[in-house]
Specification:
Length: 108
């Protein structure tokens, strides 16, 4: 399969991730992602903070559309992956997320 070919993966029932919460998921290729519920909309980024090695799903806090890394209190916009507050400067990798048949699914 070429690098340009995208795969779809159903992750979990949408009701399993309440609004304002984060959960980790592991993709078949071993990458760990963080999935966020922001006001009933789902977003996904790489789980590891791009500034340090903190897990955003385990150690981060979701405040609106921003996740705050507990290590140095930098933030990222989970809807775009863009850094917010310093010391975060490198954007997070993002993934297309959608709900199909009641399940949160991702394109990777």
């Amino acid at each position: 399969m070429s690098e340009d070919t995208k795969r779809i993966l159903a992750l979990f029932p949408a009701e399993d991730l309440p609004e304002g919460e984060i959960r980790a998921e592991t993709l078949p290729n071993g990458d760990v992602i963080a999935v966020y519920n922001v006001d009933g909309n789902f977003f996904a980024t790489q789980d590891q903070c791009s500034h340090g090695e903190a897990s955003l799903s385990e150690e981060g806090e979701l405040c609106g559309k921003f996740v705050e890394c507990s290590w140095h209190f930098g933030t990222f916009d989970v809807t775009t992956g863009e850094p917010g507050l310093m010391p975060c400067e490198i954007p997070l990798k993002t993934y297309a997320v959608f709900v199909a048949d009641g399940k949160v699914s991702i394109e990777y």
